[in-house]
Write a structure and sequence with these properties.
27 helices
Length: 792
């Protein structure tokens, strides 16, 4: 390239500001999307660079093989597995339990929420955790010490000078013995505070610590250099198979060699691709990547179409250049450089757009980029990619320039684009239309399905209900007093206890009930009688107060109709008083509700069992006519009854919406991509219409001279573009339908769509086509015959 080429290219760019803005903005949006999505994908897929040798660091996953269900892997493992692997002399250099939750830490009268983590002293060596001051490994060997991040130190104490200072956690005083940098946004471990797992401040129950069927936490281990992941898989599975957990499940689960549960080890370099949650995450990442690169391809097609029309309008200039001695190499170089100039300018604008939208995008996908989004290496790769796109998209305009006949172009008679070239650009425009229709169909389906799924009838009436998670170590007397004070508050209609928020967890606690020798896996929730009033759950039979007293030999149970039918106890009245067992525990059915669902729309509804108790549970559910007032009341009462804790208060509807957050993200991303794709297709049709009018101007005026009406002239153009739009619709509609069916295959409950998503997408594409063609149709109708004949 020469400086002269740069100056000529810049003058051409500035000579037509409308064209320049359109192509630059179109490419900038697409390039910015690709950059943002590529940065996100690389951060998520590549292992954390701060973790040493991620191939030998593994996370243990667990899956309960419930009969008749196909549950996903869970990113956790029985915490007792750590001791079992150590006792079995597993080929490991270190292993750590990790138990995370939101903590409330107190300094004086100040209570601050923190992402807390209990872990063993091996954790720093496993993950390469480093200290800014102090020693993390020594800290985790002390039950009275804590390591905190520098960011949290400033939030808690007002400055970073935190070593030796103290705070309170769960009634225990801890001393800050190490300061760490905050983990990066893509790190597997996210924490503000890390404390020794065996610290007295860890209030985890004995079941959580020692029960093989409890997977409340995670287990990480580092393999010896000569060990393999498969070895640890086999060892962990054999330890579980020999554990007491086998007696907790029905014998038929283990019939014919079936495992009641499966454990596996996943190396950290494969965690995103193969670990728990990858079944849902991979489609999200692929959807993001496909949307971004589809947008770039459509923007490139749009650029080629617009540049082709502009090149055909520069035939006289090209002819003059040729007559003055410009050879093929010089012309090719000039057109390629102009294309590279546009794409690199678009790249710079795209980076600016990324800077503006990155915070909103991070909030949308619940991610933190930190300072890794704009690195010198990424910017250089982006500019190189823009240059490559410019070279590719500049090839066809350069080809057209080389075909210009010097004499004919100076006389104004050249038609340098061949019929095959015109069909190529028509095909490219058709691709844009079909892609826009397919993406619009998918966006409509994803957004409506996520809306439908989040509002599917569960049997729980959640509007106006908030849930409060009480501290793990909350004394029963104080929890009961908190409940009673809330029940007396203005605007509060009902207050009920439960062991969990209905539907907050996809799987929940599972148990096996036995009735007349028949075993049934059910989902168990512990509640009191007021829970059913809080969620407006009517009874089909029985009474919730029957047998509900402390010290009863039998636990009263309410079953939903799904469980009653599965146990063969129909009709509901026949189930009342029926004796059940869960292991050695005696149960008695006292009430039956209609069908209830706590599972997401992706899973079949499990039979539901509610163990009734008068004792306080973990979650307090409140139905109020004024949610804002209920939140304020929660804050006031929490200060009185739980002064050392920051209670988590959230609406139940928000908890349920989290089950479909990824679907909503995909829908929004695909929706925006479809909008941009259709806009780009509109520009492509606009450019094609402009060129068609230019190419057919002699035919148009000839028809007008022979008496053709304005309607006939309009139909001449509309006919050509209706064929183009029809071809795009014929290709895009079945593609959109196939993508729609593939997406919906993951749901057991589907919205009643019919064909309206395809009709909606077609209507949008048709309206866009009409708008794009309208201006040039009007110019063709109003074309002066003298002007067209003079230019012919």
């Amino acid at each position: 390239m020469k400086i002269k080429d740069f100056l000529v290219g810049w003058r051409q760019f500035a000579a037509d500001p409308v064209y320049s803005v359109v192509v630059t903005v179109g490419l900038a949006v697409a390039i910015g999307c690709v950059y943002l999505c590529a940065a996100t994908l690389l951060d998520r897929i590549l292992p954390d660079p701060t973790v040493p040798d991620p191939r030998h660091l593994v996370s243990m996953d667990f899956r309960l093989n419930v009969s008749g269900r196909d549950d996903d892997w869970y990113g956790g493992a029985p915490l007792v597995l750590r001791k079992a692997m150590i006792d079995a002399e597993a080929p490991l250099t270190g292993v750590s339990r990790v138990l995370t939750s939101i903590w409330s830490v107190r300094v004086g009268d100040k209570v601050v929420e923190a992402d807390g983590m209990f872990a063993d002293a091996d954790l720093p060596a496993l993950f390469g955790l480093r200290s800014l001051s102090g020693d993390v490994a020594n800290t985790l060997a002390r039950p009275d010490a804590a390591a905190i991040t520098d960011v949290f130190a400033r939030r808690l104490f007002g400055d970073g000078n935190a070593l030796g200072r103290q705070f309170s956690l769960n009634g225990q005083t801890l001393t800050v013995a190490a300061i760490m940098p905050r983990p990066a946004g893509d790190s597997t471990l996210q924490y503000d505070v890390v404390v020794d797992f065996d610290s007295p401040s860890n209030t985890a129950s004995k079941e959580t610590r020692e029960r093989w069927s409890d997977v409340s936490g995670r287990v990480f281990a580092r393999l010896k250099s000569d060990a393999r992941v498969a070895q640890l898989d086999e060892l962990a599975q054999s330890l579980f198979d020999a554990s007491p957990a086998q007696a907790e499940f029905p014998p038929e689960w283990a019939a014919q060699g079936r495992k009641v549960a499966t454990l596996r080890a996943v190396s950290m370099d494969r965690l995103i691709l193969d670990g728990a949650g990858s079944e849902q995450l991979i489609p999200l990442l692929l959807g993001v990547a496909a949307s971004a690169f589809a947008m770039l391809a459509l923007a490139a097609i749009n650029y080629i179409n617009l540049t082709t029309v502009r090149t055909l309008g520069r035939q006289r200039e090209i002819g003059i250049r040729k007559s003055l001695g410009a050879g093929p190499i010089q012309l090719t170089r000039q057109f390629l450089f102009e294309s590279v100039l546009v794409t690199m300018l678009a790249g710079l604008v795209g980076v600016g757009l990324v800077f503006l939208v990155a915070p909103s995008f991070a909030d949308l996908i619940s991610y933190r980029f930190d300072d890794r989004l704009f690195t010198a290496g990424k910017i250089l790769v982006l500019m190189a990619g823009c240059a490559a796109v410019g070279l590719v998209t500049g090839i066809y305009p350069a080809f057209l320039a080389l075909r210009v006949n010097c004499a004919a172009s100076l006389a104004g008679r050249d038609r340098s684009e061949t019929a095959s070239g015109r069909w190529l650009r028509r095909a490219l425009t058709t691709v844009q239309i079909s892609a826009g229709i397919a993406l619009a169909t998918v966006a409509i389906v994803v957004l409506w399905q996520s809306h439908f799924a989040s509002h599917v009838s569960t049997g729980f009436h959640t509007d106006g209900v908030i849930a409060i998670d009480l501290p793990h170590a909350a004394p029963s007397e104080r929890a009961a007093a908190f409940h009673d004070a809330f029940a007396r508050s203005a605007g509060v209609r009902d207050v009920g206890w439960s062991s969990d928020v209905p539907g907050r967890h996809v799987v929940g606690r599972l148990a096996t009930l036995t009735a007349d020798g028949h075993d049934l896996p059910v989902r168990v929730t512990s509640t009191n009688a007021e829970f059913f009033k809080t969620y407006d759950i009517p009874l089909l039979a029985g009474s919730l107060q029957e047998g509900l007293h402390e010290g009863e030999a039998e636990t009263p149970v309410a079953l939903d109709l799904t469980a009653v039918e599965a146990l063969g106890l129909n009709p509901p009245q026949a189930a009342i008083g029926h004796a059940l067992k869960e292991g050695d525990r005696n149960l008695r059915v006292v009430a039956v509700t209609d069908h209830l669902r706590q599972e997401s729309a992706r899973h079949a509804a499990a039979p539901q069992a509610f163990y009734l108790s008068v004792a306080p549970q973990r979650v307090l559910n409140i139905r109020s006519s004024d949610l804002a007032a209920a939140r304020r009341t929660a804050g006031q009462l929490a200060t009185r009854y739980f002064p050392d804790d920051a209670l988590i208060v959230e609406t139940v509807d928000n908890y349920l919406a989290l089950n479909y957050i990824q679907d909503r993200v995909v829908g929004i991303l695909v929706g925006w991509t479809s909008v941009i794709a259709l806009i780009l297709a509109g520009f492509g049709i606009y450019a094609l219409a402009a060129h068609t009018v230019l190419r057919k101007r002699r035919e148009i005026v000839t028809r007008k001279l022979y008496g053709a009406s304005n309607g006939a002239i309009a139909r001449l153009l509309v006919r050509e573009f209706s064929v183009l739009a029809g071809a795009g619709m014929a290709l895009g509609t079945p593609l959109g339908y196939l993508l729609r069916q593939q997406y919906l295959a993951g749901f057991t409950l589907r919205a009643p769509f019919g064909v309206w998503p395809e009709i909606g997408a077609l209507a949008i594409a048709l309206a866009m086509t009409c708008v794009a063609v309208l201006r040039h149709t009007r110019s063709a109708v109003a074309m002066p015959p003298l002007l067209a004949l003079r230019d012919s």
